[in-house]
Design a protein that fits this description.
Elements (H helix, E strand, L loop, with lengths): L14 H7 L12 H6 L3 E3 L14 H20 L5 E2 L2 E2 L2 H8 L2 H17 L2 E5 L6 H10 L17 E5 L5 H9 L6 E6 L6 H18 L7 E5 L5 H9 L2 E4 L13 H9 L4 H14 L9 H14 L4 E6 L2 H18 L7 E6 L8 H6 L4 E10 L17 H5 L4 H18 L4 E8 L2 H22 L9 H12 L5 H12 L7
Parallel strand pairs: 4-5, 4-6, 6-7, 7-8, 9-10, 9-11, 11-12
Antiparallel strand pairs: 1-12, 2-3
Helix pairs in contact: 3-12, 3-17, 4-11, 5-10, 6-10, 6-13, 11-17, 12-17, 13-17, 18-19
């Protein structure tokens, strides 16, 4: 007997695929409409941040006492005052970027991306940290989970999208190369200096392969996003004629998703970058005022600082959507790298609920009370999944069907249930409600987080736009691999390690 293939009976077309097919149909003007703005307003709910039972409770009086300091920091940030420079450069270019970026520049990116996406089967984005996380977070948040396994039509005409240069795992690298076999490949290498080890090694390998496979055409298939004037990649692009985009001097990597760093890759995935910019513009406007309780970025910063001051050292950022889990990973860089100075800051732990509730939920509920929680709550998913009735109700879940509930209703409780239970267990928590999966809403969220973490720097008393500690691992790694110029560090490491007793079990 021949068994027929699996069919998705009683289910409509996957709306995520439908959205991918018609990506970009919405015209720019709708993003400014009052009705659109109201329907796509991100909400910050801090009800459960205050007066949680047990140690480390946060009193409203503590938050109120912070308001003058927060407002002062906000004014200093807007005026470019304080410890917010990196080697003489004011690092707040991200603040006005949503209104400074021109329609012409966006169209230039879209033109290059459209032409390349028509020429290639696969696009690979090479970068690490801020040159990677924002791009992948946005891509994963807005596209089908198995994007690269869909047909080109189902992807809305976009090529397959892969990411390399973000780690040094040779098996991961080799496995990804297998996905490129037999296909025409385009790449974008993203590095301001052009010498970032992980990305530079990945680029060396791919560049060699592309030149061997495509000959003279390889130069046309390689995009470079780097410093506007100097650096290894800028020099190489001048020699080869690679098309180039710019990493700006006044926008740090983890704040750079709205620059060429992020926009080129997103345009290659056919994500509407004009809508993305509009979301940033909307939150810039919302968060520009000094009415504290009407400014979500300021409230967010104050609540997190109050939690840290009360002994909370870990922030669990829990999403009720796999698509938003990648955004939590973006936050995992933004906050620790900006706040982790001089013994300060909270460790950000990205989580997907309810999956992680069955893994570390016990710790959150009853472990050491050094945790606060932020929920990323997607209110409207692309698809609705009904729960069928059964003949025997052995799992006891027919009551959900009888009450007219589907999988979507249950998933909303993945935020509301834990938020209440964890609050009662002594974990202060807040919820960021995101109306639906869209470039506009992600733009709002990113800008809100960028402003919040900048205010946090003022409150903690250090520069949130530099990361001197990151250089320590780089110098140690360079010394170990024998990079010229690091001989002194290598000798110091060797001498120190000789005096240490190696313990291996």
């Amino acid at each position: 007997m021949t068994m027929r293939g699996f069919e998705l009976l009683d289910l409509k077309e996957n709306n995520t695929i439908a959205l991918q097919k018609r990506r970009g149909d919405v015209k720019r003007k709708v993003f400014d409409a009052k009705a659109f703005r109201e329907a796509n307003r991100i909400t910050l709910d801090v009800t459960y941040m205050l007066e949680a039972p047990g140690p480390g409770s946060i009193a409203m009086e503590k938050v109120e006492a912070l308001i003058p300091e927060v407002l002062k920091a906000h004014e200093m940030l807007k005026r470019g005052k304080g410890d917010i420079y990196d080697r003489g450069t004011l690092m707040t270019g991200w603040q006005n970027l949503p209104v400074d970026i021109t329609r012409e520049h966006l169209r230039d990116i879209q033109t290059v991306a459209k032409k390349m996406s028509e020429e290639v089967d696969v696009f690979v984005s090479l970068g690490i940290g801020g040159s990677y996380l924002g791009i992948e977070a946005t891509f994963r948040a807005l596209t089908h989970t198995y994007f690269n396994q869909l047909t080109r039509t189902e992807r809305g005409g976009a090529p397959e999208i892969y990411f390399l240069g973000q780690n040094m795992d040779p098996d991961f690298f080799r496995d990804t190369l297998d996905m490129l076999r037999g296909k025409k490949v385009g790449i974008n290498v993203i590095s301001k200096s052009g010498t970032t080890t992980e990305t530079a090694i990945a680029f060396r390998i791919l560049r060699k392969m592309m030149e061997e496979n495509f000959g003279a055409d390889a130069d046309h298939l390689i995009l470079v996003t780097t410093d506007k004037e100097k650096g290894a990649l800028r020099t190489l692009a001048g020699e080869t004629g690679y098309r180039t985009f710019v990493v700006p001097d006044d926008v740090g990597g983890r704040f750079s998703v709205l620059t060429d760093v992020g926009l080129v890759g997103l345009a290659m995935a056919h994500i509407d970058i004009e809508e993305f910019v509009a979301g940033f513009q909307a939150m810039r406007e919302i968060s520009s005022g000094n009415n504290f309780w009407k400014n979500p970025a300021l409230v967010h910063a104050a609540m997190r600082h109050a939690a840290w001051s009360a002994g909370k050292k870990i922030e669990v950022v829990a999403a009720n959507s796999k698509s938003l889990y990648w955004v939590a990973r973006w936050m995992e860089q933004l906050f620790p790298e900006s706040e982790g100075h001089e013994g300060h800051g909270m460790w950000v732990s990205p989580s997907l609920y309810s999956e992680k509730l069955h893994a570390n939920g016990q710790m959150v509920q009853q472990g050491e009370r050094n945790i606060m929680e932020t929920f990323l709550a997607l209110k409207k998913h692309d698809n609705r999944i009904p729960i069928p009735q059964t003949d025997n109700n052995l799992d006891g879940l027919d009551f959900l069907v009888n009450r007219g509930m589907d999988m979507n209703h249950v998933n909303q409780m993945v935020v509301e249930g834990p938020a209440y239970a964890h609050y009662q267990g002594g974990v202060p928590n807040m919820t960021i409600e995101i109306p639906k999966r869209s470039a506009f809403n992600l733009g709002q969220l990113y800008y809100m987080m960028e402003k919040s973490v900048s205010i946090s720097g003022y409150l903690l008393g250090h520069n949130p736009f530099v990361q001197p500690g990151v250089e320590a691992y780089k110098r140690a790694m360079f010394a170990l691999v024998g990079k010229p110029g690091f001989e002194q560090e290598a000798q110091q490491m060797e001498n120190q390690l000789k005096g240490m007793k190696r313990i291996r079990i």
